[in-house]
Design a protein that fits this description.
Layout: H1 2-21, E1 60-68, H2 71-83, E2 87-105, H3 113-121, E3 128-129, E4 139-144, H4 147-158, E5 165-183, E6 199-203
Antiparallel strand pairs: 1-5, 1-6, 2-4, 2-5, 3-4
């Protein structure tokens, strides 16, 4: 009986020594620690690291092209871009654009009579007194659809020693833009722009 008790004591001592001297088993959920710098995790191998997440819209190139003044032209160009392997959509926006250019001669302290005499002396008879609105009492010297012609007339009036002003009148109009997306190896910028003066703007792709 004493022999059996002594044997059990020896077995317990052996197990205690094994557990104290054995290295700890690393937790599979944590990175191993550096032996040279205790407490600093080692880098994980690339093949064991979590795969990178992909972002919707990655690998695409997106642009905005416009403005088109006519919807039919915008639709035609959109179909051409789609045939080239791109995706796109047509967007309509309402904008304020110059509609006409008004040459106005403000009324002086002495009224319009002295201004009219100077205009008539120079052979200018195409004018009238504005009867209402913000320019009431001033002289209207002409309404032009083009800015260049209005500027020439403005310079002529100034050559008489007068101080006319140019009033730009606006109206609301529709414009059309193409929102284009191409694969990373494609770019709508390689295609010719439909009309001079249009802008091709690179933009973030939706979801990127």
């Amino acid at each position: 009986m004493r022999l059996l008790f002594a044997l059990l004591v020896l077995l317990n001592l052996a197990w205690l020594g094994y557990t104290l001297l054995s290295p700890p088993v690393p937790d599979p959920g944590t990175s191993p620690l550096s032996a040279a710098r205790p407490g600093v995790p080692l880098l994980r191998l690339a093949q064991t690291a979590d795969p990178p997440t992909t972002t919707p819209g990655a690998g695409r190139v997106c642009h905005r092209l416009g403005p088109f003044q006519r919807e039919a032209e915008a639709v035609r160009r959109l179909e051409a871009f789609r045939a080239a392997g791109m995706t796109g959509a047509l967007r309509r926006v309402r904008v304020q654009v110059p509609a006409s250019y008004w040459v106005v001669l403000p009324m002086g302290e002495a009224g319009t009579a002295p201004l009219i005499r100077r205009l008539q002396a120079a052979g200018l008879t195409d004018y009238f007194v504005i009867l209402d609105g913000a320019r009431k009492g001033d002289l209207s010297l002409g309404l032009f659809s083009g800015k260049r012609r209005a500027a020439r007339h403005l310079d002529r009036i100034r050559s008489l020693g007068l101080d006319p002003v140019l009033v730009v009148r606006f109206q609301e109009r529709s414009q059309y833009w193409l929102e284009l997306a191409a694969p990373g190896d494609g770019d709508p910028g390689v295609l010719p722009l439909p009309v001079e003066g249009m802008r091709l703007e690179r933009r973030p792709c939706p979801g990127s």
